[in-house]
Amino acid sequence: MINSNISNIAIFRALQLGDMLCAIPAIRALRKAYPQARITLIGLPWATAFQKRFPKYFDDFISFPGYPGLPEQNFDQALFDAFLPKVQSLKFDLIIQMQGNGTIVNQLIRSFGARYIAGFCPGPQNPVPNEFLLLYPNHGPEIMRHLELMAFLGIASDGTDLEFPILKTDVEEMNKLKLPVKAGKYICIHPGSRGNWRQWPALYFAALGDYCVKNGYQVVITGTKEELPIVTEVVNLMKSAPIVAAGKTSLGAVAVLIDEAYALISNCTGVAHLAAALKTQSIIISMDGEPERWAPLNKELHVSIDWTKTADYHLVLKEVTALFFRL
User: What is the DSSP string of 83-117?
Assistant: First the structure.
């Protein structure tokens, strides 16, 4: 362990939902190692709600205004000029960089002024007394990469399970929608994702939706407001009438939907990790060729298909058929 006299920790991970969920096992281990420490998440603006959902792991949140070279957030110089002094004033004992291999952000992290810096680096580096940087493990599941970082820091694993606490307000929001669904009797289909290249063709999602209906399941189409174009395309291609929840739900309400669903069928995107956290069986189509990194670890509950290697609709159909007999 770096030092037992650590009471003020920051985690830098300015990424999206799936990325954040995959880091939870490592953060859980960190909290167990430093139960009395104050842990602050530095992340994208949306993640203020993420921090509040995990109060047992995070005590505070700082919104990250972007940085040149990072694609997740447009850089805002004025906001950054206010952000940096705020971070420096907090005088963190330890900042853990969990953003990636450190090529872009490590110099930024150094400017935060922490007593110790930990995280990943892109290649062998000369030892610096207050830096604990692990050569980035560019292999294996995302969850295990961050647990490897914890092990490097002398922090024992506390398991690989993902988590997503469902709150009372999530259930209330879900109930307000009054969707005509019965728990365990419907399948969520989530055809959207960030970036069109990560979206399986709408025609295939529509065909699977009709197949699920034919086999006695309701179909609920989920998605964000930004994903409504592909949702509309799927709905228009279906012969049966699905229940459309897309554009109507908060993240928490979507979690309730997935938690109570028989299964999820989706692209490899944030909801796939929600299903893993909630232990809802799923079929995930990976369009970016990295299922070994992002696929859920439980291969019995979750099937991930690498479309870049096996672009075969009938293979997916076979897995959906098997899905009907799994539980």
Answer: HHHHHHHT--SEEEE-SSSSTTTHHHHHTT--SEE
